[in-house]
Amino acid sequence: MNSSKPPDSVIPKLELAGVHKTYGRRTANENRVLNGIDLIVENHQVVCLIGPSGCGKSTILRCIDLLDTIDGGQIRLDGVDVTRPGTDADAVRRRIGIVFQAFNLFPHLSVLDNVTLGARRAHGVERSVAEQRAHDLLERFGLGAKAGDYPNKLSGGQNQRAAVVRALMADPEVLLLDEVTSALDPELVAEVLSVIRELAGQGMTMVLATHEMGFARDVATKVCFLHQGRVLEEAPPAELFSDPRHERTKQFLQRVTEAGRL
To answer: What CATH number is given for 12-21+29-258 in this structure?
Structure first.
């Protein structure tokens, strides 16, 4: 019997179709940030969003995690529109982890309590179960000895790794990373990127907003260049970085190269 539903193999893990987002609507300060974003993320892909500041990279991630409400279009997870009215946003967020450029760890809680709090409070996981998973993840990412420490005793790189562990506690299907190295000293960037590289090697589906062009070139499955709230160009990293099609992409990459960041 024929079915109008396509087979699972052709349904992207994540899809943005004609997504619009404007801040300050109907005011003199209206700011249209996303102007018809089309983006497909297949299962196990690592998609890097690049472009100048203000092009909409962070807003895309916030909209995917339903932290910001879109003004038009759809965001689909496994083919289901998660932006439709009545969607349980918390249920969606249990499937999508997000890490911000600011660590957002509670200073009065230990690392262990920080990374288990969401699992215990939001997901109802028993403390003993949550703590065992947390210890396993902290050990995996070189923080096993830091479980009892407080954030002010950790380096920036260690805090950011703890934030990644917190996002992984729910075993997300998709991980969003928003400029996670931008607040770090240069010598700490490598330790956070190594964690992301390990996750990519293990098949984690990820969408990253990043200024680390070399990392995007080495790790991404696909790189998307954003300009004026649209995906102007997307391609495998070897293709986009060596032979960009659009003049605006060429200008951006030339400036990045001149700044020594590629």
So the answer is: 3.40.50.300
